[in-house]
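in:
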C-alpha cells in the first residue's frame, strides 16, 4: 500500500480553500474532518471557520467528539480539537449535541 503524503494533502486542501468553489471546499473539508490524521482535521476546521461554512457545523461537532475519544492517541497536541473549537466559535456555534 502506498504511503500517504500528508503534507501534500494539506497543501492541496489549503489551495482548495483559496481557489476552489464553496462546494469543492465543503466536500473536501467533510472528508478531511473524518480523517484519522489530526492535522488534516485541523486544516479542515480552519477552512470551515475562515470561510464561514456553517453547513459543516454537524461535521465539526462529530469530529470533535471523535477526537475526544482516546484523546491522547487521536489528537495528542490538541491541534484538531483546538482548531475545531476556534472554527465553531468563528461560526457563532456555542454547543454541540451529543
Amino acid at each position: 500500500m502506498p504511503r500517504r503524503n500528508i503534507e501534500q494533502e494539506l497543501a492541496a486542501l489549503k489551495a482548495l480553500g483559496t481557489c476552489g468553489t464553496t462546494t469543492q471546499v465543503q466536500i473536501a473539508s467533510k472528508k478531511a474532518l473524518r480523517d484519522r490524521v489530526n492535522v488534516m482535521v485541523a486544516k479542515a476546521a480552519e477552512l470551515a471557520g475562515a470561510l464561514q461554512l456553517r453547513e459543516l457545523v454537524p461535521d465539526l461537532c462529530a469530529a470533535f467528539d471523535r477526537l475526544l475519544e482516546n484523546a491522547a492517541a487521536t489528537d495528542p497536541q490538541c491541534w484538531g480539537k483546538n482548531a475545531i473549537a476556534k472554527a465553531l466559535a468563528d461560526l457563532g456555534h456555542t454547543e454541540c449535541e451529543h
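note: Residues 57 and 93 are 8 Å apart (CA to CA).
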